[in-house]
Each structure stands twice: as C-alpha cells, then as structure tokens.
Amino acid sequence: MSSLAVTNVSVAFGGVHALSDVSLAVDAGQIVGVIGPNGAGKTTLLNVICGVSRPDRGDVTLHGTIITGWKPSRIAGLGLGRTFQTSQLFPGMTVLENLMTGLHLRGHTGLIAAAFRTPSMKREEAEMRERALAALDFVGMRAFAGRSGTALSFGQQRVVEIARTLIGEPKILLLDEPAVGLSVPRVAELDTLLRRIRDERGVTLVMIEHVIRLVMGVSDRVIVMNSGRKIAEGRPDDIRRNPDVIEAYLGRQGDARRPAP
Amino acid sequence: MRAVVSHRALLVVLFAVLAVLPVVANQYTLFVGNLLMLYMILALGLNLLVGFAGQLAFANAAMYGIGAYGAALLQVRLGLSYWLAAPCGAVLAMAIGTLLAFPALRLSGIYLALATLAFAQFTQWVLLHWNSVTFGAGGFPVPQPEFSALGMSPDRGIYYVSWVVTVVLLAFAWRVVRSRVGRAFVAMRDREMAAQALGVGLLRYKAMAFALSGFYAGTAGALYPAVLAYVSPEGFDLFQMVLHKAMIVVGGMGSIAGSVIGASLLVYLLEVLRQFKATQEIVFGALLLAFVLFQPRGLVDFLKRSVPGWSEPLHYASDSESAFDVAVADELVTGSRGGADR
Ligand SMILES: Nc1ncnc2c1ncn2[C@@H]1O[C@H](COP(=O)(O)OP(=O)(O)OP(=O)(O)O)[C@@H](O)[C@H]1O
Ligand SMILES: [Mg+2]
Fold this sequence. Notes:
The complex is a heterodimer.
Chain A: E1 4-13, E2 16-26, E3 31-35, H1 42-50, E4 57-62, E5 65-66, H2 72-76, E6 80-82, H3 95-101, H4 111-116, H5 119-138, H6 154-166, E7 172-176, H7 184-201, E8 204-208, H8 212-218, E9 221-226, E10 229-234, H9 236-241, H10 243-250
Helix pairs in contact in A: 3-5, 3-6, 5-6
Chain B: H1 7-24, H2 27-52, H3 60-76, H4 82-99, H5 101-106, H6 109-129, H7 131-134, E1 140-141, H8 154-177, H9 180-190, H10 192-197, H11 202-228, E2 230-231, H12 238-251, H13 256-272, H14 277-294, H15 298-306, H16 319-341
Antiparallel strand pairs in B: 1-2
C-alpha cells in the first residue's frame, strides 16, 4: 500500500481547470519531484492533499484512510507536513517559538494547565524547547533561535520553515518550491538536507520545484504536470528524454539546441 | 545611565500602589482606581482576542454590557445575591462571546469587524428598547454588595475584590500567552494557513479566544454595577469600544504589559478631560490615529527599545498588516459613531 494516493482528482476555479483527473501514488521513503510550467496546477495539487482545497471530484488517501474534505489541522494530525511557496514563518514570534509551534500536535497544554503552570505543563514546555533547539541544530540554525523570523535572510527562512514542519515528525512532507530564490551554494545545501530528511528521518517527500537540477538530482521519481494534467511520471533519466515533457517545457518539439529539463 | 526597569517590576509597583490606595486616597480617587482596574481587565481581554489571536472583533463593549446587565438584572429582577449574579453575568458574556467565533470562521478582517459591530449595535438596541426587562435608556440603580461583616464600606470592599480579580486575570493572561495556547493564537493571527498545516484547529482556537475575551469583558461588566451602583446602556456604547481599542493600540497590541499601560494612560486622560466632555472623543481619536500612523506597535515597543531590562517577549503582528487593519477598523468605528449620533 502506498503512503499517499490521489485518485482521479479534479479541481476547477470558476472556468479554470486547475486539476483534471489527476492520479498518483507515493511510496514510503521516496522523494517524489513534481515539475511543470507556471500555472500547471502543482500548488493546487498540494492544497488538495493537505486539505486547503476541496476537490470537485476524486479522493485523497493517506496511509489507507480517505481524507477527502477533512480540515487541514486534522490531516496534519495524521502525519502530513507542508511548507509553502511563499514564506509562512510567523513574523510575530522568535525562530524558537516558530519551531515550538511546529510541536503543537505533540503537546497537550490547554488553558487550565497554562493557568496553573502544572508540573506536566512545565515539563512539556521544557521538552518542546529542547526539541526545538535540537531541530535548529539539525538544520544549522541554532544561533538564530532568539531572532525574529523576519530578521532572517530568505534562504534561512525557508530552512527554518522546513525545520518547523519536520519537528512535528510528519511521515510525509510536502514542499512547495523550497529552493525558490536560493543561491547556488544554498541549493546544494538544500539538496543534502532533503536527502538527510529522507534517509535519517525516514520521511517521504513530495517536492514541487522549478530548479530542475535539484529535482532531477534528488528525486527517486518525477511527476510532470501541465495545464492541470499529469503528463508524465518516471525516473529522472526517463523524464529527461520524454518527448511530451520536452514539448511542455519548450513549447514545440525538436528544438535540439535548448537543453531538455 | 539609563534606568533599568523590567516589565515585571513596573506591574508589581503599579499593583502595590493600587493595593494601598484605599488607605491614602479619598473616595473619588478610589472610584477612579477601581474603574482603572475594570479597564485593565477589558483591555487584557480585548488584547488576547485582537492583539494575540488576530480576530478583528468589535463586540468588547457589548460583552461588557452583557456582563453588567446580566449581573445587575439577576439581582434586581430575580433577587439573586451579587455573589451569585456576578459570576453568572461573566459566564453569560463568555457564552455569547464564544458564539461569535462561528462568524469568525468564515469572515476575517473588515468583514468580521462589521459583523461584530452589527452585533454590538444590536445589543445596544436591546438594552435601549427592551424596556420590560432592561428598564430602557434611563438605566436603573443596583444595590451594592455589603462588606459590613469585614468592617468595610461597599466602595472599599468592592475595590479589593476588583484588585484580586484583576491580579488573577492579569496573571492568567500572562501565562496563557506564553504557553502552547498563546503560540497557537499568534500562529493563527500571523499565518492562518500555516497554522492549520501545523495542526492548529481554527474553530477550537478562535472559540477559545472569543470565550476568553468574552469572559474578561463579562467579568469587568459584572464588577461594574457593584462599583457604580447603577447601569445604563450608554456605559457600553461605541465610545466604550473605541476606548478599549485605543487602550490596546496605545499600550501595544500583542502585549500583556501594554494592555495595563494603555488602560492606565487612557483612564488618566479620561480624568484630565473629564470637564471637557466634547474634546474627549477628538483627543482619543487623534491619539489612536497618531499611534496607528507613527507608533503602531504601541508604547511597549518604545519601552522595549529604550529601557534596558524590559524583556517581555513581544508578539506584535508585522507592521504593515496590523497598521492597515487598525486604520481601517478605526475609520469604521469613528465614522459609524459620527453617523449614529449626529
Ligand atoms: N484560489 C484560486 N482561485 C482561482 N484560481 C486559482 C486559485 N488557485 C489557483 N488557481 C489557478 O489554477 C491554476 C493552477 O494554479 P497553481 O497555483 O496550482 O499552479 P502552479 O503549478 O503551482 O504554478 P506556479 O509554478 O506558478 O506556482 C492557475 O491557472 C491559477 O491561476
Ligand atoms: Mg505553485
């Protein structure tokens, strides 16, 4: 059984068919890259999986449970993590607090426990702090724990966001263009980080990315989207040579001088 | 050398002064001190909802009124003792406040502001026109609770009750915002989608924020008839709402110490301007606008930057967003008040 399955999902916004009859399955322990031109429906696909958008047709199955129409917070509780195309750090919190919020589902403190500062509440808070610092260590950002999220560089924000999602120990992590705006050395660091997340944490990754070199390098499998449809799927090497993919990227077939993706 | 003042020290000194006020002050000053504590409770509750949880609601004065009328009417109409009626009033405001979380699930920003404002206006209308229950526009007197068993006058007795309640609610708010719940509030305020993706359930935390702020406003309301011995609808009108809002904007949105500082400053101004009723509105309007434009993070931000030792973790929203929200909302309130009154 695959970890995550999308079956015959369609989504339309007004007249725009953002997704048309898309199906895919993701096996545990893989990195799956999703590529495609702007407006292909990649983000919409992630939104449907994590519950932000409701599909008009079709279903999403997570670890054998049909989660179509569930609220995002409930889906998160099943071990699905997500980062976004634009920075979504909480600007009103420190980096450390951002990380601790990533542990929300692991905690139990409610109003009463907070009011009385019960021993279990204090213990939970101390544990969260420890784990948040450890997670910052994992991505090499511990020195920034006390900073405001907005004081970080763009690339640092992306990394902290990944750490914030990872700390909740998701089984599946959806990443929407994690490399956007990163310098070349930073992309190489991200490449290493993604592999470590898969290998050391055993997390399954689904990553939308426009930086083709990163996707092709790191992905076990690549899915290509265009105009709301899945037009190809396979190993990176096969995708490179797929004529449909070349056409989607170059607009017409056989322009041999432009590099295929 | 600059003075080292911690936010804690300031609060401790402030409440120590308030504690000895009955010994040194005359009756009028005592009354103002008591009123100040009511406003602190109101500002704290509103800041939890608007400043921390980011819900642009305009029903605080209405919740205040529901708490006050609930506590007063249960005594006057049903003959309940104050000590039973007051908690009922606070809980009633909390319950009604919680219901406002449902529109807040669908509406945000200016639309939520409008919906809650409509609710506040409806509450005013009920207080004004449901004469057979609320005694209408003129209001009604309410007997003050007795403290003769403790050898204290009612004014002094209720003053100490308010002091204890305010300290408890201040400590409670302080602890809540620095807990998992407080982080969920700020997450929801800053990035709703990301908060959900991390498992923060919006219904749960919006309901919690509205319940808390309803309870705070309701508690202040429940103390009101015991302090003033009288309730009438104008104590809970839109001017009150602007006042509460101004307190948290001036003090600092997303700051507990700021709520207390803002309430203190505006109650002081209210007293200074007592003889010039007509200018009160203008002064508060101008003050609000000045802060929104030039110091949107309130006085606490200034204190944090200029006073060493001031270390309250501040959870303010990013400037552009909060400033915009506040500007739009206050335009709305000032505008609609002008329209309704003249
Ligand atoms: N909330 C929405 N309302 C209306 N149209 C939308 C909405 N979200 C997406 N769309 C449309 O759906 C299509 C797919 O958008 P989507 O964001 O999924 O593309 P994408 O593949 O992520 O593109 P990009 O690479 O630019 O991020 C686009 O035409 C977009 O305009
Ligand atoms: Mg996208």
